[in-house]
Amino acid sequence: MAGRLPALCMKLSHLGRLSRIGCGDFRLSAKDSIAPYGWGKFSPVDEGQSSGDRCCKWFSTVVESLEPVNRKAGLGPVIAVGLSGGVDSSIAALLLKRQGYRVFGVYMRNWDSSDEVGGTACSAERDYEDARLVAKQLGIELYEVDNQKRYWTDVFESFTSDFSTGLTPNPDLACNRYIKFDALLEQAKQLGADKLATGHYARLALSRDGQQFQLLRGIDHDKDQSYFLASVAGSALQSVMFPLGSLIKSDVRKLAATEGLITAQKRSSAGICFVGRRNFSDFISEYVDMKPGPFIAVNSGAEIGTHDGIPSYTHGQRARIGGQPEAWYVVGKDVPNNSVFVAAGPEHPALFCTTAVADGLSWISGALPAELAEGRVLKCLYKARYRQPVEECTVCLASADSEEALREGMGIAFTNSRKFLPSSLCRLQSVAMQGEQLQIKFLNTARAITPGQALVLYDGEVCLGAARLLHPGPSVFEEDFEHEHGQGQGQVASSTQRSELVHLH
């Protein structure tokens, strides 16, 4: 004990702010200087400890509590907060400032909608003004950075290209990977920041070996945004902070209202950032060719209407078909023939499948999980859409040849088996492969598995990474029909023979 106190006292002497410490009665004589930082009154616990141990524990508590003072004095990290003009980033900045960090805001401009039809619906100017007012309320500087050229090159060009092949990409993952946590992070550092903070509902934690950061789901699972962060390079996470990861959205709004922030009641952003609340079909038609074609009912093979253009539709979407007494849903797309397959009702078996194939693998750790690296299967959790709850699945590299993979009916021997070939309702147009392919078996049937969307994998709360869904396997509707009728003709689901199925391998 005697050897520990001098070291702690030496550390306290460097921190300052304390004029006298009484170890016997645990009193601070500098209460006025400590109270503003929210430490409150110190109450010793563990009455069974010796006074020396209690004193040492108290010293440690004071040292930890004084860290915000250190930052306040300009000795700690400088944090750039990506202020978007919304409530989440506003509270992220507020919390960091309250903790004593030196904080400034950065507003990122990625898109110019001035020349678009309906472009006035974009809230960029209003968002910037709100960000400016929040920065003024918080007493921090605000900088504006322009990433429009890089956004166009790294995000939007591939977005429109994917749509032309029949994919339904999610640009938010690419934006986070290439813009927010690459370009913006570097710009923040050039402005003098040590780290970049955002209002994402996600958490960070050190790996067991302490060598790298892991991405965790946010405490508020309804708002958890780890799905959108799943392709961010793990090396970037060491320079990132997510102050809202342990909060729930309702508490964030309450705090904003209590603090009188102008963003307290501001409506949350919706949809793709550069589309906003505009009609998506109207927006995408400005960048991708739209050619009307038939809606085809999977049960009968009959044409029951005309669609506006394949890029306007995605799996699981309600198809607005005039003159129909019931609701119809998109269950697939035949891009070469410009047809959209539909089925009646949101629970039609053509919407569900038990397998899928993905590519474009991106692991936050920078390396394959050990199981996959060894050619084995990995049992984990997944999300195939942002809003869906996590579900169980088994994944395996298509090139795996271990006994375990073969026992699971996965790997190299099953790459061209029926269950890992595309659904006959999913025919794309010349999709370029992105590296190694991943086979996925869902524990429960999965709804509306959509080519181009992100498949995000989890080990409990830890986000492992993301992949691009290439195609769903045969739907439950197709499997049931084959079981009952073999390879007979007459139904959309069976009219395409196995040899004619679209191979993406």
UniProtKB/TrEMBL annotation:
Gene Ontology biological process: tRNA wobble position uridine thiolation
Domain of life: Eukaryota
Region (Disordered) residue spans: 481-505
Keyword Metal-binding: no
Biased composition range(s): Polar residues: 490-499
Keywords: ATP-binding, Disulfide bond, Nucleotide-binding, RNA-binding, Transferase, tRNA processing, tRNA-binding
Pfam families from the UniProt entry: tRNA_Me_trans, tRNA_Me_trans_C, tRNA_Me_trans_M
Residue span(s) of domain tRNA-specific 2-thiouridylase MnmA-like C-terminal: 431-467
One Gene Ontology molecular-function label: tRNA-5-taurinomethyluridine 2-sulfurtransferase
EC number from the UniProt entry: 2.8.1.14
Residues of the tRNA-specific 2-thiouridylase MnmA-like central domain: 282-343
Catalysis: reaction(s): 5-taurinomethyluridine(34) in tRNA + S-sulfanyl-L-cysteinyl-[protein] + AH2 + ATP = 5-taurinomethyl-2-thiouridine(34) in tRNA + L-cysteinyl-[protein] + A + AMP + diphosphate + H(+)
Xref: Gene3D superfamilies: Adenine nucleotide alpha hydrolases-like domains (2.30.30.280), HUPs (3.40.50.620), Translation factors (2.40.30.10)
UniProt keyword Repressor, yes or no: no
Function: Catalyzes the 2-thiolation of uridine at the wobble position (U34) of mitochondrial tRNA(Lys), tRNA(Glu) and tRNA(Gln). Required for the formation of 5-taurinomethyl-2-thiouridine (tm5s2U) of mitochondrial tRNA(Lys), tRNA(Glu), and tRNA(Gln) at the wobble position. ATP is required to activate the C2 atom of the wobble base.
Protein family: Belongs to the MnmA/TRMU family.
Protein name: tRNA-5-taurinomethyluridine 2-sulfurtransferase
Organism: Marchantia polymorpha (Common liverwort)
